[in-house]
Amino acid sequence: MTDDARPALLLTGPVMEDVVERQLAPRFTLLSLDTFSDADAGAVRAIATRGKVRVDEALMARLPALEIVANFGVGYDTVDAAAAARRGVMVTNTPDVLNEEVADLTLGLLLATVRQIPQADRFVREGSWVKGAFPLGPTLRDRTVGIIGMGRIGKAIARRLDAFGVPVVYHTRRPQPDVALRHYQRLEEMAHDVDVLVVIVPGGPATRHLVNAPVLAALGPDGILINVARGTVVDELALLAALKARTILAAGLDVFEDEPNVPEAFFALDNAVLLPHVGSATHYTRAAMGQLVVDNILSWFDGKGPVTPVVETPWPQG
Ligand code: A2R
């Protein structure tokens, strides 16, 4: 059971980053999704959540006293923010603190994919070098990159590509007034014009399978796809088919449709670089994200409102 002086806070995962539990434990009764009872449910006023667990209508309906859902991560596609808004529940995420980290990883993954860095590493380890040189490969030098999504992280990626001397264009639903790069209203048209697509849009129904078979066909046989956003944005079966048939050149993927279950068909492909969703996964950045989760919750219970509310639950209200 819980008492009013220590509001009940539900953690949806067994282990939230250390920074979260350490700072919240003194002030809240921490409950775990696996073990909390219906008696506890009535007292839950906050959720701290991350990753796979869905905070949906059904869960929120069990929690009549729920006030705030603080999501660990900038992408909150596992939280039904529209349902939260209807219930008057605040939703927060962790924007900005991971921009540079994810952008760093994106450039690393792009270079790894185009210059075949993991393949070259395997070549040395397997002892193949003594039998002959690693074959010449593709380059970043003659490519134009099309970024799908030009928000906080997309802009950090574009800045890095500028330093690499690589032309950049982008696709979003609306052109960004503060971005001087060419904007494409139609993704297929951009895919046709570029040699690399970098995906950095939110997940969820609006972007599901945005990168589909026609987009991959438009990207063409020299094309490279980099996905650091959400697995759901790319039609994985269409991508597998394109990689197998070499109707695109290669893919670098940090995210998958059903993590951590990566389709085995990917493992046999020598033209795919596969990462286990590590875009923001450093001690430094995960601590900053954890701190922002804590700051949102403490600020809320101090009556000062959320620090970083999502667009569906704006603050101040109305
Ligand atoms: O479409 P716009 O004008 O709202 O631009 C946003 C774009 N975007 C889309 N572009 C094309 N089709 C869509 N259906 C669509 N929905 C959104 O994605 C904007 O340029 C960008 C999102 O920017 P931010 O909200 O600043 O997100 P941030 O912090 O860059 O993170 C992007 C995503 C996260 O949601 C995670 O899923 C992933 O990166 O790590």
What is the strand and helix layout of this fold?
Layout: E1 8-11, H1 18-24, E2 29-32, H2 38-41, E3 44-50, H3 57-61, E4 68-72, H4 81-87, E5 90-92, H5 99-114, H6 117-125, E6 145-148, H7 152-163, E7 168-171, E8 182-184, H8 187-193, E9 196-199, H9 213-219, E10 224-227, H10 236-245, E11 250-253, E12 272-274, H11 283-301
Bound molecules: ligand A2R.
Helices and strands, in N-to-C order?
A: EHEHEHEHEHHEHEEHEHEHEEH
Bound molecules: ligand A2R
Number of strands: 12
Strand content: 15-25%
Described by strand count, sense and barrel closure, the largest sheet is:
7 strands, parallel
Query: For this structure, what is the CATH homologous superfamily of the largest domain?
Result: NAD(P)-binding Rossmann-like Domain
Tell me roughly what share of residues is in helical segments: 25-40%
Biggest sheet strand order reads 8-7-6-9-10-11-12
Overall geometric form: elongated
Counting DSSP H or I runs of 4 or more residues, the number of helices is 11
CATH architecture of the largest domain: 3-Layer(aba) Sandwich
Total count of domains = 2
Low-pLDDT regions:
none
